Amino acid sequence: MSSVNSGILAGLIGKGIQASRTPAMHEREGDAQGLRYLYRLIDLDQLGLDLDALPSLLDAAQHMGFTGLNITFPAKQAIIPLLDELSSEARGIGAVNTVVLKDGKRVGHNTDCLGFAEGLRRGLPNVARRRVVQMGAGGPAQPWLMPCSPKALNACAYSKLSQAAPRLWRTISTHTSAASVPW
């Protein structure tokens, strides 16, 4: 990320995020790296805003010199039409959790998949992924399935109430012969 006045300015856009530990984590790591790192919460609830404010918030972040934004509930999908580019992961998952603001462009990424894959690699290094069961079809479901190799997926269980389940299933079913099991 680029620096502004010898520092890095980043933030988190989401709803109900006042208890987030992210600012402290980012700023502490910046200090450890010898960087002045400012991380700001942009809480839609606290500001009395809804998703219609995303275009203005992105414009303001760019004008104020933000180098990037983390995106969380409920904006991970709503932000996509406002971006200039998407990484292949964000495009495949259909959600963005990181926006890099550089050279006047807004580039969306999704790091959930990479983070989950690394967790699997470290926590379960020798476990075969021949059979995987996904419980739930909400926001995290697809990024978590990708590192498991959808070809290995034997069943996808989801809530009958989930509006996300059909979309997730359409994506996954193109890569697997798995069964969908409503519960």
Task: Explain the overall architecture.
This protein is of the alpha/beta class and 183 residues long. It has helices at 22-32, 44-47, 54-63, 88-93, 112-123, 141-145, 165-173; strands at 7-14, 36-43, 68-71, 85-86, 98-102, 105-109, 132-135, 153-158, 179-182. The chain is 31% helix and 25% strand. It has a six-stranded mixed sheet. β8, α7 and β9 (179-182) form a beta-alpha-beta unit. The longest helix has 12 residues, at 112-123. The N and C termini lie far apart (44 Å). The mean pLDDT is 82.
Record the SSE blueprint:
Blueprint: E1 7-14, H1 22-32, E2 36-43, H2 44-47, H3 54-63, E3 68-71, E4 85-86, H4 88-93, E5 98-102, E6 105-109, H5 112-123, E7 132-135, H6 141-145, E8 153-158, H7 165-173, E9 179-182
Spatial strand sequence of the major β-sheet: 2-1-3-5-6-4
* Coarse structural class: alpha/beta
Taking pLDDT < 50 over at least 5 consecutive residues as the criterion, the unreliable ranges are: none
Order of helices and strands, N to C?
Answer: EHEHHEEHEEHEHEHE
Biggest sheet details: 6 strands, mixed
Helix content: 25-40%
